[in-house]
Amino acid sequence: MPLSLLRYGLLGRRDSDAYFPPEPEFRTKAEVVIIGAGGHGCAAAYYLAKEHGVRDIMVLDKGYLGGGNTARNTTIIRSNYLTPEGVAFYKESVDLFRDLDRELGINLMYSERGHLTLAHTDAAMRTSRWRAEVNKHMGVDSELVYPDEIAKLCPQLNLSDGVRYPILGALYHPPGAIARHDAVAWGYAREATRLGVRFHQMTQAEGLLVEGGRVKGVVTGRGTIHCGKVLQAVAGSSSIVAKMAGLKLPIRTIPLQACVTEPVKPILDPIIVSGSLHAYISQSARGEFVMGGSTDPYPLYASRSTLDFKEGLMMHMLELFPFLAEMRLLRQWAGIADMTPDFSPVMGLTPVENYYIDAGWGTWGFKATPVSGKRMAECVATDRQPDLLAPFALDRFERFAPVGEKGAASVGH
Ligand code: PYC
User: Considering the entire predicted model, what is its pTM?
Assistant: First the structure.
């Protein structure tokens, strides 16, 4: 036995290599406070520290790091949107995701699988063709494919005519990927911590100090933090937190449910989505089939699971993949989705000076984590709306300048 191993065993001294250092002391002053330690908040903290040299940052979360929608999403990454503004934005996110393992020094298990959005009607074929053209124009790899090609890409899919909604074609997006969602938040948070950012979990923002139209601090149960700038990145709680700053957001808040099966050997490579059937599926690195459907039919702030969801989803899913009838469901859960009227996010400056918003992610917040972090950091550091975020400004609803992305939603609403 090597001597070093013997010494290690006998001395009983274990160097701790904790992923995060212990929580730092709570201070009542900071340059920037970020409300929300989900993927977006952690990423914004990281890029603020790394690219803009802002290190005096406190990140607060009412729960635990990455424990909200970050932990509940189904990890799909893609940039096959409908509008040029949306495609440009998500393209930057995919570009950042591709190199993120290396940047953060963590295995995100980023896995490019290809993404097929099935079309069952002439209208869906037209939208797919439209998306393919916009994507190609913006340098994103997407094309319309027909059943013979779909059969090669996904032999498990039921392409027969003997179903209620036969598959006519699909939008094929080869860069479509999945990744380990919670590791994205952990990776950003760890690197931000190394740069001096302070994270405080179980620390709820209970109020905001706003004086003369300018934010001055954040009130928490542990004390008031006096600060220069505040960024809110709180996913399903966006309207509640924005209200504390006196802002009323054009947002509806709806649960979005998902589930996974028991794990089996890898058999399903691409990510399959049918907006018309309200169903999507991918197979995780662990072998589980990760599935979801449409948002719940009513606004609600509750992450409970329902039998209705499961019944509705399975009705369509079994039509696409009859073999799933043999599988057992393992877990079911919900996230809280904040939907804007045009299905695009709200990002950037607000009417309150030095108060910045990252909200309205609806059903696609995870895939935007790197780009929203990077560009929101730029916005906070420079106090200017970055070009890439200009279309997503909050005041677009007053200017009647929506960025309509409903046609690129993977799930029904
Ligand atoms: O936008 O790809 C997506 C998506 C899948 C499930 C929820 N959103």
Answer: 0.95
